[in-house]
Each structure stands twice: as C-alpha cells, then as structure tokens.
Amino acid sequence: MGHDHAHPHDHPHDHSHSHDHSHGTEPGPDGGDPVLDLSIPDAELAPHQLARRGFLTRAGILGAGLAGASVLPAGAAHADGRHEHGHQPSRRAPRHGYAWLAGDHHIHTQQSSDAQYRVADHVKHASAYGLDWMVITDHGSIAHAKIGVEKVNPDIRAAREEYGEQTLVFQGLEWNIPAAEHGTVFVHPGSNEVAVLKEFENSFDGVVNNTTASSTANESAALRGLDFLAASVTKGRVKDAMFFANHPARKGIDSPHEIRGWRDQQPRIALGMEGAPGHQAAGIPAPYGPGSGRGYYDNSPSANSFAGYPLASYVTYGGFDWMTATVGGLWDSLLAEGKPWWITANSDSHQVYADDSARPVGQDTQAYFDANGRYGDPVHGSTGPNLTQGDFWPGYYSRTHVGAEQFGYAAVMQGLRAGRVWVDHGSLLGSLDVRVRPAGSRDPGYPLGSAVRCRRGQQLELVVSIVTQDQPNWAEFVPALAKVDVIRGTVTGAVSDKDTFTTPTTKVVKTFDVTGRRGQITLTYPLGRADQPFYLRVRGSDGKRTAAGINGAGVDAAGPQADALGNADPWNDLWFYTNPIWVLTS
C-alpha cells in the first residue's frame, strides 16, 4: 500500500510562538496576578492557581470564583464583551489569537512491555513530523512502578535539553484505571515529577494493586487516585496534573457513570477522553497490514463490560471512538449536561507500521524487562519492514491541536484544560479557528471551549475559519476537505441516571459542501435568537466514506461509516472534530 515513508519531508515548521521556558505562574493583564483578576475565568487557571483563588474567596478577599464542574452556573463571558464581575475584557481572556500547538499525549517507549523505542526515537520523529508537545506514557505495571518511572526520567530530561526549542516533552504514564480501561496521567515538569508519578502508580494503578475488575470498591479506588493528583497540585508538589481516558469504548468497560464520576470528582484533573484512538494503521488489510480494526477495536463484551453498550460501540467510525462519533451519543450526553469533557487524538505508538527495527537479541525477553524495567535499545535495519504492526510515529497521522497563549508547558496544559482543542487525521486541514460572536459583528468572538453568556433573544452566529491543506501529508498526497458539519444540542442540565449515554436533541443542523475549495474558507452559520442554552461542535471530512449515523439520517445524514475489520485504510477516510462552545442565556 506504499505507506512506508521513512525518508524525511521538509515541511514548514513555523509555530509563530515565543519560546518562554519559565515554568512559573503565567502573568495576568499588565503582568498582574491572574488569581486576583476575576475577569480571568477559573477555566483559564492552573489547579494551583485555582486552589489559591478558592482560599482567597473563602477568606472574603475575592468575589465568588467560577464553578469548574459545569458551565451552567453563572460565570461565562458575555457575548457583548461584558464579564460576570463587571470587568472589562482582559488581554488574557479567550478572545484573542492563540498559537495552535500540535501534540500527542499517548506514547510508549522501551519502558513498556509491549513497545520497543527509546524516548529519543519518539521525540526525534515527533519533532520531524511537526509536533510541538508530547507525553511519554509507559504502561503502569509492577516493573514500571518499581523502577521504570525513574529509569525513563533521565531520557526525558535529555530530550528536553536537546529538543526543548522544538518539542515539549512531558512525563506521564498510562494508568490502568481501577475498574476501567486505560488513561493518560501526566504532570508539569519539575523536581517532584518522578516522586508524584511513582507514588501515584504504586498506590492507585489497577494492575499493581489488583483492582482492574469492575466493582464499586475498585471504582472508588479510581476516584481516590484522582484525589491524590489534585492534592499533589494543591500541596505544591507539582504545578499541574491531568488525566484523559484512553480508547474509552474499546472494551466497553468505561461505563457512563464512571466517566461522569471521574469528571465530577475532580473536574480540574479529569478533563476528557481520546475521541479517536491510536493504532490507526491496524485496519490496513493483510498482507499489507495487520488486518484488524482501526485502533485495534476488534473486541466483544466481557464480564467487566457495561451491559448497556450496543455491539456497535466496539468498532470505530472513520477512525473515531463510538462515544465521540455518535451524534446524540455518550459525548453529547455529557455536553448537554454542561459538563466540559474534551476529546483528543493520539498515536498510542508502541511499534511502528513498516519500521525495520527490533529489540536486540538477549535483551528482548520478559525476564530481561522485569529485571531492568526496559528492553534494550532497538536495532534498526535488523529486519525488513514489519507490516504486522498497527502504529504510526507521533505526529505522522493523528494530532491534537491546542490553542496556547505561548510555547510552554504551562500554556499547553492551560489550553487543554480550557478545551481550546481540535483534532484531525492525516493532516486534513492546514488550520482551523471556530468562534461564536454576535451576529454581524466584527468582534473576533469566543473560541473552542468557551461558555458564552448572552442576553436572551440576542442574535448570534458561528464562524468557522479554515485554511485548507496545501502540503502533502506523510502518505504523500494533499488531503482535500469535502464537507463541514455543524452539530447543535440543547443544554438540558444534569441527568438523573448517571448511565445515560444518549441525548435526543442533538443533531447535525448544517452541512457545508466545500468540495474543490482551496485556501482560506470562512463559513458563517446564523444561530438565530438565543432563547435557551445550547452547545455547538464542528466536524468535517474528505467525504470518501459517509453513512447515516447510528441515530438515523434525521440526526446525522452523512456521518462516518463503521470501519470494517481487516479492511480499513486510514488514509482513505480522514476527519476532523472540534471541542464544543456553549451558549448560555440570561
């Protein structure tokens, strides 16, 4: 199939950001303290800043802060430029331009028992393929908890030293969530990053502590793990920490109530899920590929699976997880509650499709790994191209684009927490900006992740600004965008049944046919008079594989098709998705 492109590409890599590597508190307007500036919403603060604001609020020094668990309490920015506390819009408020930094928070190295590459291998490839940030997330395990967390840290610090001007490298791990699937956990770099991650893994990893089975007790253990991460921030051990659920529908064991529980327990830590899993090469037909499902979504229900999930949830749709791809499905049910729950897309890179390296003989056994916490360094050229592997290098196919105020670790984490995130496959787009603004206004509007408060009856519009792709992707063709969908749902508030995974009011309300259009595309969609709270999200595709959605053509006339097991070329089915914007009325 010709997807082995080991030769380098000279693609532009201008990120248009300043390289501020001071990892302290970011300044507020005019250099002031962002904790004290109430025109900066809570969603824009790191957890340690939020904790300090809460303390000052309880002490009567500050006015009431904004809620973190839901967009519904008062506190969203006003669409006419006013803010909750009467302040003028701040220069740090989310109304200005951002550097959109591409990244990947799910990557495995030789410190994972089913992977093989060095940290340096992944960082070099990620930097070459245009990533600005990445997270090393080796599997939680007894060996990793014992020695792996410490052994990988010098490699990460060396990569930061060598590539710090191009690619930020976070240390994290892939958490075996008690009673559930896997998840990325990572922290802001600092002197305690190893100590915090090591204590977290030893105390709360499902494999290490034998808490993987579905049970109420094990679900509680997961919540205690999130509490530990939050406490590590508020106590100042690390500056920030985050959790994202990985491949959430793959085995059906992340139940709706668990996902809601994570978010409700620690909304500043539990931020979202992979909207699209890694392992995207796994669906390439044999003998040219693994012949499995995209993301290795080729499972059936087990005793630990949530019984309410349909069989349709165990496959991907255009490479995206069923929870994300279903209009009116689980993700939308969370957004309709007003719960910020963001999606990402990552490589989950372990062993790369068509690579020709292998673990060294004698240092490739489980016994060696258990004793040393890692395999030996891979030997390149030791085999021919391996077409049985389902992974791509970080940045090669899947990207998570984060709107950051500058190039830096804190800024990336702040952008992730604020939900200024969109994702794409195969470099489908050159760039994307999505805003809500007053109808007919020249105001730049409010970006992804915003909760915009407007007067009841105010006329609003959605503006989608796209620069189409003009460079070949790594499969050596220039992707062509064919359509853009606007998805809208009513905000209905909290559900009584925490296992709800549908919302009947959400549907595709507009499809723009952009076939053949190139360069700058601006799409404006009138939202009418705001008379009740709602949210919007946007997606689009190359139009090569579409079908009526799971909830019918009246909800989604041309959504992503279910990917066929053993016959799903990822390059022939490209999509982008954005995170939502809420509109709240008063």
TrEMBL record:
Residues 1-24 have a biased composition (Basic and acidic residues). Residues 1-39 are annotated as: Disordered. InterPro entries: PHP_dom, PHP_domain, Pol/His_phosphatase_N, Pol/histidinol_Pase-like, TAT_signal. Residues 103-179 form the Polymerase/histidinol phosphatase N-terminal domain. One of its GO terms (molecular function) is 5'-3' RNA exonuclease activity. Gene3D superfamilies: Metal-dependent hydrolases. SUPFAM superfamilies: PHP domain-like (SSF89550). It comes from the Bacteria. PANTHER family: EXONUCLEASE, POLYMERASE_HISTIDINOL PHOSPHATASE N-TERMINAL DOMAIN-CONTAINING PROTEIN. This is PHP domain-containing protein.
